[in-house]
Design brief:
The chain is of the alpha/beta class and 357 residues long. It has 2 domains: 166 residues, Glycogen Phosphorylase B (Rossmann fold); 175 residues, Glycogen Phosphorylase B (Rossmann fold, 3-Layer(aba) Sandwich), CATH 3.40.50. 38% of the residues lie in helices and 16% in strands. It contains 14 helices and 12 strands.
Length: 357
């Protein structure tokens, strides 16, 4: 490895939304560590399923994937020696890069462990309840802020302060996720074959936790309202597990097309970059639409990752209830009133100005 190039490891392993919100850090890291004229190469360590999200980042030089599922399978099968050898091989892979700095952007023990495993002498990241800070040389508290990407912005400013005497408040922070040209062309081909033509609206009804879902009847009502107001096609994004529910939303109105389970994650990124307007719950696709400066209506309830964004066309809707945001500890016996009380009328009223023809 050339001695005049500083090797920096950035660790954000998952998930889609946090990867999107952390995607402004690579440019900030390079800006901070390049102040003395020394070249910087940045490697992003990410879980294997999310490699496509970061591999086309303009400020990411290399991507290393953590084979989490393989390690988990070895642990489940009690193949401890094989797991030890896998960890040892991964350690070798990391150390071959000669990292001098590891920046841990997740605030978990596993991500701090990888920073330590990398051999970097300078390891910067977040404090956690797991005491992961013991593996770091500098640990930061996560700020309490309603601004999108607040913890990553705080990390970026800290790095800039450590590396440079310049005014870090003047630093810009811009989320950046791109798909490849191959994925873009594939997405266009597949969506055209399904009858989806531009311009179109995207909705993202699905996420990992039931308390973040907006009721299906609300989505159906919203689709009817959109269709009465506009002839723009509506594309539904989701994963393979969401395919049946997504298909059910297509039955009542014409021009509603489910892409759930039919296109890859990277192709979904391409579709979002082409869409005219977007509606979604607290999911990575919603944060991605905001990063693309699309007219976006975000429906938050049990989680409220932000209320302030860099996109003047993002509208965050939520019910300001005493119990919300409850995050992973709902107290409503499955009623999820914080989501139910956000009405289709409220969502449509924010959306209609962008889709009027």
């Amino acid at each position: 490895m050339p001695k005049d190039v500083q090797q920096i490891l950035f660790i954000r392993l998952s998930a889609i939304g946090d990867i999107v919100m952390a995607s402004g850090l690579p440019s900030s890291i390079k800006q901070s560590y390049s102040h003395n004229g020394k070249a910087v190469e940045l490697t992003w360590l990410v879980e294997a399923p999310y490699e496509a999200l970061v591999s086309n980042h303009p400020y990411v030089d290399h991507v290393i994937t953590w084979p989490k599922s393989e390690w988990r399978a070895l642990l489940k099968a009690r193949k401890y020696w094989a797991l030890f050898n896998a960890i040892k091989a991964f350690r070798k892979q990391l150390r071959e890069k000669n990292f001098t700095v590891a920046i841990e952007g997740q605030g978990l023990l596993k991500s701090a462990f990888f920073a330590y495993l990398s051999g970097a002498s300078q390891r910067i990241g977040f404090k956690s309840k797991e005491n992961s800070q013991r593996l770091l040389t500098l640990a930061l508290n996560k700020p309490s802020s309603q601004q999108i990407s607040s913890e990553y912005r705080h990390l970026a400013k800290t790095l800039h302060s450590l590396c440079s005497a310049e005014d870090h408040d003047s630093m810009s922070y811009e989320m950046c996720i791109r798909s490849s040209n191959v994925a873009m062309q594939s997405a266009i081909s597949k969506t055209s074959h399904l009858g989806l033509t531009q311009p179109f609206i995207v909705i993202a009804p699905f996420t990992t936790r039931p308390q973040k879902h907006w009721p299906s009847k609300h989505w159906q009502t919203l689709i009817r309202k959109i269709r009465k107001h506009s002839n723009l096609p509506i594309a539904i994004l989701g994963g393979p597990r969401d395919a049946a529910q997504a298909e059910a939303l297509t039955f009542e109105c014409k021009g509603v097309i489910s892409l759930a389970g039919k296109i890859s994650l990277e192709e979904s990124v391409s579709v979002l970059s082409l869409c005219y307007a977007f509606v979604g719950v607290d999911t990575g696709l919603t944060h991605l639409a905001t990063s693309y400066k699309k007219p976006t209506v975000a429906i938050f309830g049990s989680t409220r990752p932000y209320t302030v964004t860099d996109n003047a066309y993002t509208h965050v809707l939520f019910e300001d209830m005493a119990c919300a945001p409850c995050k992973r500890k709902p107290t409503c016996d499955g009623h999820f009133d914080c989501m139910t009380l956000v009405t289709p009328e409220q969502v449509f009223n924010q959306l209609k100005a962008y889709i009027s023809h």
